[in-house]
């Protein structure tokens, strides 16, 4: 019985058993297992870091204006529009009647007068005509929204386009309209064709082009080929300068009043004790002076300029 037990073969192969008896086998198995575990851990960590880095630079779609998949992105440094002439080919037109500038010479002011109804009127814009005298397409000088598009019995068809920030362009003496009120137009889009008007018959077939800032006309030639921000910046500079001048004037008046002599003070006291009849006369005189100042503040063309053209 014992002999049979000794004769039973071992379940382990002799070659494997001999290999396991060597000293370097188990250390090698341990090192190999450790290397496999370490490699797997590093691979998993690198994969996780890559996903985190990718999400770091992606905007969430939950935040308005940050989704790059649903909406088309707009370049941050997109160039601003520059004011252009309201024609397809600026080289094919010329200025028939320039802008009336109160600071210009009498000769330049005379050329900028429009004679209508036996009266000379200062030109609030520029009148453009083709060099060959033919009709031409009129285009939008800037992109914007049409706020007016109708026919005027004296000015012809009129189009006004709002460009925000108080900037408005006006196109008069049109023969027809290709836009309507409320339309959104792009720069260079045709809005009508040049025609004639009763107001300036001497110009023939032309377009009257104006640029207004906060309701006041400015010389279009001062802003052609310049960004539209030049209009808002110049208006802000003028407002700042006017405010500074007003503050200086008020300060000087305050200083003069504070340094008046005793005799002036006594005269002031006497004037304050005047009778009711004197007070009423003073009020009437003050009213007349106010009306005179308001009339003098309105600048009108020199009458001698109109006489020179007759």
Given as residue ranges, the uncertain stretches (5+ residues, pLDDT < 50) are: 59-63, 65-69, 74-78, 272-277, 282-298
Number of helices: 8
The arrangement of helices and strands along the chain is HHHEHEEEEEEEEEEEHHHH
Q: What is the number of beta strands?
A: 12
Which structural category do the helix and sheet elements fall into?
alpha+beta
- Beta-strand percentage range: 15-25%
CATH architecture of the domain at 90-227: Distorted Sandwich
Radius of gyration: 43 Å
Mean pLDDT: 76
- What's the story with the biggest beta sheet? 10 strands, antiparallel
| CATH-defined superfamily of the domain at 90-227 | Glucose Permease (Domain IIA)
Query: What is the 3D shape?
Result: rod-shaped
Percentage of residues assigned to helices: 25-40%
Written description of the protein model:
With 310 residues, the chain is α+β, with helices and mostly antiparallel strands. Among the domains are: 2-55, no CATH class; 90-227, Glucose Permease (Domain IIA), CATH 2.70.70.10. It is built from eight helices and twelve strands. It has helices at residues 2-7, 14-20, 25-56, 106-111, 229-258, 262-272, 276-297, 303-309; strands spanning 93-97, 113-116, 119-122, 126-130, 137-139, 144-152, 156-162, 167-177, 184-185, 190-194, 207-213, 216-218. The strands form two sheets. Strands 1, 4, 5, 6, 7, 8, 9, 10, 11 and 12 form a ten-stranded antiparallel β-sheet that branches. A hairpin with a 4-residue loop joins strand 7 (156-162) and strand 8. The longest helix is centred in the N-terminal third of the chain and has 32 residues, at 25-56. The protein starts with a helix and ends with a helix.
């Amino acid at each position: 019985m014992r002999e049979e037990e000794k004769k039973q073969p071992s379940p382990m192969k002799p070659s494997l058993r001999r290999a396991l008896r060597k000293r370097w086998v188990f250390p090698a198995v341990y090192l190999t297992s450790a290397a496999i575990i370490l490699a797997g851990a590093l691979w998993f960590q690198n994969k996780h870091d890559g996903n985190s880095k990718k999400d770091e630079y992606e905007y969430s779609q939950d935040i308005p204006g940050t989704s790059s998949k649903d909406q088309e992105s707009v370049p941050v440094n997109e160039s601003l529009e520059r004011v252009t002439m309201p024609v397809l080919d600026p080289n094919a037109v010329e200025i028939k009647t320039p802008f009336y500038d109160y600071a210009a010479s009498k000769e330049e002011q005379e050329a900028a007068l429009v004679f209508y109804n036996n009266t000379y009127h200062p030109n609030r814009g520029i009148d453009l005509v083709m060099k060959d005298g033919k009709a031409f397409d009129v285009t939008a000088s800037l992109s914007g929204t049409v706020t007016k598009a109708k026919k005027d019995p004296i000015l012809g068809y009129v189009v006004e386009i709002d460009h925000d920030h108080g900037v408005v362009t006006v196109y008069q003496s049109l023969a027809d309209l290709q836009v309507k009120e409320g339309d959104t137009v792009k720069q260079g889009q045709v809005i009508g064709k040049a025609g004639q008007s009763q107001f300036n018959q001497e110009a023939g077939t032309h377009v009257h082009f104006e640029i207004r800032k906060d309701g006041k006309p400015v010389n279009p030639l001062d802003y052609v080929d310049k960004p539209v921000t030049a209009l808002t910046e110049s208006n802000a500079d003028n407002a700042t300068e006017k405010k500074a001048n007003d503050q200086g004037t008020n300060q000087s008046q305050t200083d003069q009043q504070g340094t008046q002599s005793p005799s002036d003070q006594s005269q002031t006291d006497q004037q304050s004790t005047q009778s009711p009849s004197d007070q009423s006369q003073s009020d009437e005189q003050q009213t007349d002076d106010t009306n005179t100042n308001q009339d003098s503040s309105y600048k009108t063309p020199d009458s001698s300029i109109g006489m020179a053209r007759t």
